[in-house]
Amino acid sequence: MNMGLTRDLIRLALREDIGRGDCTTEAIIPTKLQAMATVYVKEAAIVAGLPVMEAVFEELGGQVRIAHLVEDGQEISGKTAVCRMTGSARHILMGERTALNFLSRLTGIATFTRMAVRELVGTHAKLLDTRKTTPGWRSLEKYAVRTGGGYNHRFGLDDMVLIKDNHIALSGGIRQAVARARAKVGLAQKIEVEVDTLRQLQEALDTDADMILLDNMAPDVLREAVQLVAGRVPLEASGNVNLETLAKVAQSGIDYISMGALTHSATSVDVGLDIVFE
């Protein structure tokens, strides 16, 4: 993950939550009081986000130490203690909600991704994420996808050339769009082009595109496309992909499947923090 962007996001989240100060904690908890707390993930999950939790407390001043009881990427079968923290009681309480929000969201994405990856067993398809991410969270959410066993597609518009339907419409056609892109970027960047029909697929094959995205095609049409291409370029399937359709899409013989739901529809998991007295 991009720790520079992550720390920017953490600062924003802490400012949002703490504001002018934690009036409850500052009124009740003595400045020098030390405490111990345990963080739990309360359901079956793939844990993701523990390093981000640590960064939250580092941003508060580094007066809280965190010991991992599991590691990111580890699968748990039910309620599990994932880390133990010790240090300033004030800082534990001030950072609690922000830290847990990161852990909850990222663990939810990793868990959902792992569920999706399991639907691909027995095929050679690889699962990709998309740019349908929470604004500001992209680096973290794509980290969670990797933690769950998926692969990252573009991080941004500067990663690679992806010629979509609107680019094609404004360029006058697939050949024109690919030719202009290649003339601009040379061999420095890969070019992927999106097609909606088998006719457009044939047109794309006559260009020097490095990869072709098959948009919103049914599994039987995807199978035809795979046979038509016969391995000349990698093929990606996208559009209306969910846990129910994923296996059928993969069984078409496609190389990659992009699934926006990995980040825009994953459900956060239930997490909590309890003060421990020993």
Keywords:
TIM Barrel; Aldehyde Oxidoreductase, domain 3; 12 strands; 6-stranded parallel β-sheet; 11 helices; elongated; 278 residues; alpha/beta; 4-stranded antiparallel β-sheet; 2 domains
What are the SSEs and their pairings?
Layout: H1 3-18, H2 23-28, E1 34-41, E2 45-46, H3 50-59, E3 64-68, E4 75-76, E5 80-88, H4 89-118, E6 126-128, H5 138-147, E7 161-163, H6 165-171, H7 174-185, E8 191-195, H8 198-205, E9 211-215, H9 219-229, E10 235-238, H10 246-250, E11 256-258, H11 261-264, E12 271-276
Parallel strand pairs: 6-11, 7-8, 8-9, 9-10, 10-11
Antiparallel strand pairs: 1-5, 1-12, 2-4, 3-5
Helix pairs in contact: 1-3, 1-4, 3-4, 4-5, 8-9
Report what the structure shows.
By secondary structure, the protein is α/β, with parallel strands linked by helices. The protein has two domains: 3-111 and 266-276, Quinolinate phosphoribosyl transferase, N-terminal domain (Aldehyde Oxidoreductase, domain 3), CATH 3.90.1170.20; 118-264, TIM Barrel. Helix content is 43%, strand content 20%. The chain has eleven helices and twelve strands. A six-stranded parallel beta sheet has the order 6-11-10-9-8-7. Strands 3-5-1-12 form a four-stranded antiparallel beta sheet, with helices on one face. Helix 8 (198-205) links the parallel strand 8 and strand 9 (211-215). Helix 1 packs across helix 4 (89-118) and helix 4 packs across helix 5. The radius of gyration is 23 Å and the shape is elongated. The model has no long low-confidence stretch (mean pLDDT 95).
